[in-house]
Specification:
By secondary structure, the chain is an alpha/beta fold. Strands 2-1-3-4-5 form a five-stranded parallel sheet, sandwiched between helices. Helix 11 links the parallel strand 3 and strand 4. The longest helix is centred in the middle third of the chain and has 19 residues.
């Protein structure tokens, strides 16, 4: 496994049954992984939007005597900073952080079963609704653009509001069995509500999120984590985008006529002079 701060935290949290408040703290810690060993319980509580006693109970739930013991553990396992890292400017640091996110994603994909299972679920759903709002809308659009070349009926849900539940209902009536969601920070409340509604309507929810402890986790049947970068003013999402492409590949494996559809598109595109090359 990667030795990044975020990866170490993910390993620390695995196997523990956490309450929604504790998942919120875990999610905050993963997003601020490099800073957490140096934060007080009050500072962490403020960042996570919870009470200070909640942070203490969270540390106890992980098996520590209290938050100071958890913080000492994180400091003990943290690798020493390197001089090379100190010489990088903020833009280089952001790129390096994204490279680390991609390395961690590669390690998670060493077990391909979750992605392969997701691919089968998406391939079998006719139609296939793909949800992504606000920051995640571009991820949902990119997936839908390519998926429509091999899947017979992809329905992009990238606008919120009162019509969202109606569109979920329409997909269910048309025969949908699964929904793919891209969920990135900051997590809109209506995405959480939409996933809860989709599951109540009988859909299996597959979610690509920035953390296994994201707010959407409780409303997902299969959650695939891919970390976002937080070093710039706006989050960077290279790992979620790449995971979306990996899901496309897995979905193609579940569609026997995927290659034929791609070849048919290429023939039509050439006949129309669609591309300049």
């Amino acid at each position: 496994m990667s030795d990044s701060p975020a990866a170490r935290l993910q390993v620390l949290f695995e196997g523990h049954r956490l309450t929604p408040t504790q998942r919120r703290i875990a999610h905050c810690m993963v997003r601020r992984a490099a800073d957490v060993p140096f934060l007080s319980s009050v500072e962490l509580a403020e960042l996570a939007g919870v009470s200070q006693p909640s942070v203490t109970r969270f540390a106890v739930a992980l098996g520590f005597d209290g938050y100071p013991a958890l913080r000492r553990h994180l400091r003990d396992v943290a690798p020493p900073e390197t001089a090379a890292g100190d010489s990088l400017n903020e833009y280089q640091q952001a790129v390096e952080a994204e490279i680390e996110n991609l390395r961690h994603l590669a390690e998670l994909l060493a077990d391909p079963e979750p992605v392969e299972r997701a691919g089968r679920l998406l391939a079998a759903s006719r139609p296939l609704p793909v949800l992504g709002l606000r920051a995640a809308a571009s991820q949902a659009y990119g997936f839908s653009y390519f998926a429509a070349k091999v899947h017979p009926d992809v329905r992009l849900l990238h606008e919120g509001g009162t019509m969202l539940a109606d569109r979920v209902d329409a997909a269910v009536r048309a025969g949908a069995t699964a929904l793919l969601c891209f969920a990135l920070p900051r997590h809109p409340r209506e995405v959480v509500d939409a996933l809860a509604y989709a599951r109540s309507a009988g859909l299996t929810v597959v979610t690509v999120a920035d953390s296994a402890f994201a707010p959407v986790a409780a409303h997902s049947d299969l959650l695939l984590p891919a970390a976002v970068g937080t070093g710039l003013a706006f989050d960077t999402a290279c790992a979620p985008m790449l995971l979306g492409r990996v899901l496309l590949e897995a979905m193609c494996d579940g569609l026997p006529d995927a290659q034929a559809r791609l070849e048919e598109f290429d023939v039509r595109a050439a006949a129309r002079g669609l591309f300049v090359e």
